[in-house]
Amino acid sequence: MSRISKNLLFASALLTTAMVGGQAFAQSAERAVEEVVVTGSRIKRVDISGVGPATVVSQEQISNTGIANVETLLQRLPASAGAAGGQTSAYWTGNGYGTAQVNLRGLGINRTLTLINGRRVVNGGTGANSAPDLNMIPTAIIGRMDILKDGASAIYGADAVAGVVNIITIKDFDGLKVSGKYGITDENDGAEYTVDLLWGMRGDRGSVTAALTYQKTEAVNLASRAPCALGESNGALICSYSGNTLGGRARLADGRVVNFSQTAGADGQFFEPYNGAKHGFNSNPFLNAVSPIERVSTAFLADYDLTDNVSLFGEFFFTHRKSNQLATPGGLTHNPATPTGAYDPLRDFTIKASNPNNPTGQDLVLLARRIGEGGPRKFFQETDTYRLVAGARGTIVGDWTWEAAVNWGRNTGIDAMTNIANLERVQQTLDCTPGATTPCGDYLGAGSLSKEVLDYVLYTSRDTGGNEQRSVTLDFSGTVFELPAGPVGAAAGLLYREEKGWRDPDARTVLGIANSNRQESISGKMQAKEAYLEVSAPLLADLPMMKLLVADAAIRYSDYDLFGSNQTYKGSLNWSVIEGLRLRATYGTGFRVPSVPQLFGGTSEGNLTTADPCSGYSTSGNATLVANCKASGVPAGFKQLGNTILTTNGGNEDLQPEKAKTLTLGVVFTPPQVSGLSVTVDYFDIKITDAIRSIPGSTKLAVCYASAGLTHPFCGPSNYTRSKLTGEVNFLSSIPVNTGKEEMKGVDIGIHYDFDLGPTRASFDWNTTYLGEYLITAYEGAAPIQFDGRIGSGNGGFPKWRSNASFSVTDEAWTGTYSVQMIGKAIDFNAAPNDIGYQAPRVFYHNAQIAYRFAEKADIAVGVDNLFDRKAPFIKSYTDGNTDTMTYDLLGRRGYVRLTYQF
To answer: At what angle do helices 697-706 and 623-631 cross, to 10 degrees?
Structure first.
């Protein structure tokens, strides 16, 4: 470890020991009393607790975490689960490499609506994407984040099925604030550099606020955390290597499977029987645990009082991002049979006995050969994201207000991949007949490919794409009339929205001559016209056991050019029984329309982490599994080579909107006898029908081979096929479909307490989510697939319990923070009870920070994440690094220091 790293971590530990801190999510003791528009409602109100279960994260709380990425902060919330993109996720979704997303309830990134100041955000990535990039907004300008953990389609329209993340920007800032942060891991890698600037000026009639965030994160190689991919053998974990070898794995005409020389410069004529432990390829040194990113995010906000009754406002955001990922050297895989059964000569690597480079004296099929001579592949992206909002607001009569706004967003991206093999040229180099015009390629033996051949067959692919969003809104709100219990508030509005996405892969990828994941061009758009009405009425007040009873109702009409019309509604009751005790209930309907890539995305392929249930089936003792694997032609003693399987993704133009029904029942307890204490308990019940979902390949295979006689529909040839030569799965489909239904039930628990601790102010905060049930029924009549309490297989984690507890202490000069994140036990989706990694243990992560104001306008903060260096547990159907990188921390302990000065 470097001296800087050691000193930084030592200082963090010393300061933390000296002063115990608290948590990033501590609530402020100060409460605003003016009426405001809160997340989950369009009606101005004083009390935000009646609109539904919500978590509010303030600017101070964000600062106390030391986190520079919005996605990391949100993914630590107990209400987050499942799979979402980030720098430590093995696979990003929907061409979104380098983007950051949040997945509330684990229901999918598409079902969490992201807003900035109550308005939608354009999707981010490298073209035809399904969710915004959370990190497009400068951290310095975030005033707070509201996380509504309830369906809100009647308020915000489509996509708000699981909840809403609303990022609210800072207003009325005056001055200049500069902050710089440096962080590094305990292994002296993954250095992170962040600079934040915030400037503002306020006049008599208006204000201007600007912000900039620069962030650079360096790579962490996967082998530094996981030297090799692990698999179970004879009750122990051993390195499991890919069968796509450097020397080449081949099947001879006499049936033997052999491997050619693995050592560059050795006897190119040498071959021997294939042995996975000896010849297999270790992919981990060619992958990253954290992928490097460099990002510049800017924001400019202004407002101006045109008259006493009319104000103009505007917002402009721009983000430029560079990101890249490391990948293993490309490989050739014999797979000439397409999913339709047609013959693909470009993927037929048969080498005749007459070929001068074939030392075996017989025809052979080159099953797999990695082109290690060309070096690792590198993915890299550059994206630009723009967002412009312009509008006006004012008063009409009484307390009635209006607002009109235009919202435009555009994201464009370029992504490329180096060292891609042109299969058409590979086939040409296999023709080693005298007089051939192309160089002769020797693919048998490591290091045998000449520079001339490499220059001829390898190239850099280049893809382009983007997303665009346009909308026009007109909103009104105010008091309709007075009831004895209080004023009846209402809000109404109209909206027009247009979204489109496009992606143009490299021409060689589209033609299928590239030895990379097949993709087709994507282009599509949709339009929506909407109208909504929301009413809030106090029904009773100041009665016995009825301090206040408020009813809220909302209805929304949506008309889509692709799907027709749809209506959603929501109703709620907020009953203050006595002072300090409140009961609340909401019931509503929701819907989500398919995204552009889900509808129009062409076929694409990817090597995704997948567990083949037939691997080692002959010794499993499961009679059904043994019979099914034999019936599929899988040879006895078969072992899956590596941990990935080529999987087909893409769009489905037959998709229809999914529908949802959400019920929440809650209690809010704020006893007047204990000032500063609040306790909330909320039960949630979500049912989704016609759900749009891509069932992961591992799940399909596991369900198929658990069915008697391979009778499950997942066993059909449209879902997977096996090689007749080796028994390996050579085609697997996860095309999205409208599945039967999804059902989720659970409970959110929150305890918050602000109190004095001697001369200091203390705060305790504890948020917990219990996932009681999450079942997915793939089609009508099918047995449900249990997700609650499960993990892995590309689904992410769905433990029964997730929790985040914290304690904080603050005085005039010092602020200490300490938090504990708990991820509960979970069973692997595709592991048997006796398998290693069948159940992941309960995991605790401890994070600490202490800040000191050493001058009137200057602060220093030092902190440590994963204080006790908790290692990620082994997950059998892992995404990467032998764990579920979408759930656990792969990096280990890391420290940081941050300096802030305000002019």
So the answer is: 110
